[in-house]
Amino acid sequence: MAAPTSGHSLFVALMFATGLLSVAVHVVDRGWNRLSSPHSMTLWSSLVQLLLVLPFVGFVSVLPWKIAVVLVAVGALTAYSRVSWYRALASREDSLSRLLPLTHSSGFLVLVLGSLLLGERLPPLAAVGGSAMILGAILISLEQPGATLKEFLAMNLALGFVLLQSLGRAANNVSYKWVFNQGDFDFFSVYFYLKLFEFLSIATIMICFHSPRLGPGNIQNLAAFVAARGLQTASGLLFILVLNHIDITLAEPVSASGPLIAITWERLDQRFGFIARMGGDPAPGRTLSPWGWTLRVAGTLAIIAGFLLLFQEKG
Question: Across the chain, what does the average pLDDT equal?
C-alpha cells in the first residue's frame, strides 16, 4: 500500500474526520436513543436518507428492471440489517468499543461474497487478514466467556447482531460492484435507487409486522436522532469527497481507526462523564478486569490488522 503523498495528506486527514463523525453518530444513538424502538429508528433513518437525496432526482438515470429487482432485494436486506445494529446498541451490558470493531468484518465478507457471487479471486493474503479478524472477534467474545454455552451465547448476543449488520453492509457493497459490471451506470443513480428501495422495502416490512413500534414517539430523543442523521450524512458526503481524490486502498485503512477512537472516547467518558453531563445515558457496559481490557484491545488490534491486510493485498 503506497504511502500518502503531501498532496494526499489533506484527504487522509479528512478520512480520519469521517471516522470521528461515524463514532460520534454511534455515541449519540447509544447515549440518547438506546431505549428507542430499533424498528422505528430503522424506518425513520431510511426516510431521512431518502429525503436528503430526493432533490437530485432529476440527475438520476433509468435502470433496467432486472437490476431494479436486485436492488430491491439488497435494499431490504441492508435496511433491515440496521435493526440488528440498533438492537446491539440497545444492550446496556455491551459498550460501543466492544461492538464497533466487528463492523469491519464487512470488509472480509465483501471479498467472500465477491468470490462466491461475482467469481472474483480471494487472494491468499486476504484470507490471512480474514483469519486475523475472526481471531479478533473470538478474543473480544472471550471477555465474557460464561460458565456454560448458553451463558456465553447470551453474553455475546449483541456481537451476533453486529455480524448480521455487517452482512447487510457487505451485500450492499457487492451489489454496487455487480450493477457496475452490468453496464455503464453512474454511482449516484445506483445510490439513489438503493436508498429509494431501502425505504420502500423497510416501510412495507415494518408496516406489515411492526406497525405499533414505528411512530416517531418511539424514538427516545428525536432531536438527538435528527442530529445523528445529520452527522451521518456529513460523514457519507465527506467519504465520497475523499474517494474522488485518493484511492480506496488508502482511504479505507485510515477509516479503520474508528474502533480505536471509540476505545479512547469511552475511557475519557468514564473519567470525565461527558455523556452524563449532557443528559445522555452513558450505558457503561460490563465492568472489565485488566485481563478483559487486554482481550478487548488485542481483539481490536487483530481486527484492524486483518482489515489492513485486505487492502494491502488490493494495493
Answer: 79
